[in-house]
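call fold(seq) -> tokens
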Amino acid sequence: MMSFQLTSNATLISTYFQQLDNTHYGGSIHGHTVINRDKAAAEQRLYNDYFSDSPMYGEAMFKRRFRMSRRLFLRIMTSIQEHDNYFVQKADALGRPGLTPYQKITAAMRILAYGVGADATNEYIKIGESAAIESVKRFYRATIEVFGDLYLRSPNAEDIERLLHIGKQRGFPGMLGSLDCMHWRWKNCPTAWAVQYTGRSGRPTIILEAVADYDMWIWHAYFGLPGSNNDINVLSKSHLCANLANGVAPPANYIIQGKEYNMGYYLADGIYPKWATLVQTIHNPQGPKKKYFAERQESGRKYVERAFGLLQSK
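ret:
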């Protein structure tokens, strides 16, 4: 019985390798064919369309398709190229020039901006699916590493002074911004995760918690919880809540009716807990004073709503 089993396995292995010898493969992976994408011609077409001195598509069309100005795109590309050598054009083993930073970053931005599949960028940019996925991963990591310290940070002393000045002008001395959550639709949510990410909208969403000021600067963002949560659940898990509970907050010194305060606050809607650092509106205000306060509070709370609207439009 043992001899028969060994003989049978040897026969199967021999047959398998004979089949491999008789099969013609192209590319570095078995079963993948070699596609001559003509990357150089694609790069030249991309450059002539958007980045040359006299591009085919002007600034307005560039903003519409890239969701940013050409100047901002070039700034991001230059900074990321200096940070990550992956975005520097190199030659392959045969000495042929590889993908340019224009192609890699354009593919990454198209995927992030439009949510298209990685292989969809192959038709115009002529970049393979695996290269497009790698470009997206490298792009967002490099973006965080390069720009995170400047844009993804808590306000410094200069920022606090500006925020307090704006808050005082708007009738809320000591206000650091407006706090709220929004549900971001996850169009390509995996079926296995759809239930836990589906909230009252009936569609899978991901929640973004943010604090924004009058200029729509989002200096706090917590993103990633399933849409089945609510604002209170998100707040209890975000580091903003942990800092508030521990008494850690951006330094803010201001005076209201002769009393000094050293901790700022945020404007929020009625679902949030009644904390000293969260100023809510007055439901069913009675009298001109309370009505005026509710009107001003709801007006100030629109800062973050405007920021959310801008994100969705982009």
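Confidence is low (pLDDT under 50) at residues 1-14.
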